[in-house]
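ok trying this again, last paste got cut off
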Amino acid sequence: MVKRSLKVASYNVRYDPKAQPLYVQAAKKMFVKSEGLEKSWCERRLWLTDQVKWESPDIIGFQEPLHPQVEDLSSLLGAEYDWRGVGRNDGKKAGEYVPIFWRRDRFELVGEPEYFWLSPTPHIPGSKGWDAQLTRMCNLIRLRDLLSPSSPPIVVMNTHFDHLGIVARYESGKMIREKIAAQGDTLVLFVGDLNSVEEEEGYRVLTGNKYVGSLKGHPKEVKDVEGLKFIDARHEVPLSPDGGENMSRPLGDQHTFTGFGIEKDAEWKVIDFVMIADNGVVSAKPPPSSTPQRDAERKEQKEKPKWGVKRFGIVDSLVSEEGEGKGKKTKSQWRISDHRMVVAVLEIEE
């Protein structure tokens, strides 16, 4: 049996309406320096893309970048990554994107991306649904894994649910659930900023109430819908308190939204996720490791190998810098974004 792993990430990079691509700023000798807790994009972008390079995800979905920011992400991440995405306001370049980036040496795009809007009229660019304050959309692509080219293409979805519309978040979750039903017997990855904590309907409809019993306050089950649902990588990673092959705990503070403040406060919450469609190609907990006996049993039972979550973590966004000013050493702390990057590693033995 051969192990194949896949690192998937989600990262809200915080939009900046004043952002200009790196090459434009260089030509105009511009550098916008900010005051206060939130740094400008031109101060944050190299730190952010360095962080992505360090984690080196095979697939990553970004939320919130405007077109100039997407251009920077593409140029700064370099030729190792390809990407697809459009602006949500017009299906072209206007408004925030939910672009999906992937490693060129691992995947190739199959067919054309599928863009749809989270509204009752999903094929109308810029449409807004239910009680949402802003236009919201989803990006769906299919990727062929070059490590297993005969396998069905992987489906990847990236979205950003509305920040105010509770009904919109629930209806958006239902729409995503309906969408995965048509994807067939293949690995379906879903990443994004859902603006929905785990106790809320938007999250619970996506996961089919699977984690209700473990949630704070034990909320009542939300009205479910028929069809496939998602498992949440955060809850499915195997943990061993004594270490060993498994992690002893998920990496990092698990709050994914922090704002730009340094100290933890009541606004910190878990709203960014990596999920996997529970369609038979993923195990809710990773299958037992390969052994001669286990391999023989699989062969005899014609058991199809399944993906499982192997690692999970939240990468901190805090930067600490030291310098000198007025003859004194200075130290400053600030955040790369108001969200942290969410990372999950999946594994399959074939």
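PB: full thing came through this time. The helical segments are 22-28, 41-55, 67-77, 166-180, 201-207, 233-236, 292-301.
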